[in-house]
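Q: Could you fold this chain for me?
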Amino acid sequence: MRLPYLLACCSLFLLLSIQPAHAVVHIKPETKVEKGVEETTALNKKELKQKKRQQRKQFKKQLKAKLKQLRQESDTDLLLLVIIAILLPPLAMAIYDGITTRFWLSLLLTLLFYVPGLVYTLIVILGEN
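A: Sure. Below is the predicted structure, expressed as structure tokens.
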């Protein structure tokens, strides 16, 4: 009876006495680069943020255009979306447009009354195709 108690106490002591491992990070000294034309024309933080924002907007536009192109190519997908929209309007909206404000609006309308959510979802799905 004392042996299991003794083993439990010893293992608890060993667990508590273990020191956490410390990671070793080697930092290489930076190499100094002579100032040239590249550094003088470097963008400041505000311009970098603006450039990144423009790149994100351009990427989103390209993605939306590609999704729109894929939506137009398949008629069977449209038929399946309409069937799903009749059964569960928010699910159809999530499949069609992802989890966006349209989805949340469709969910809200469906929870309040079924018919407005259904009508809204069908308008969005059929209106863009």
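A (continued): Residues 45-73 form the longest helix (29 residues).
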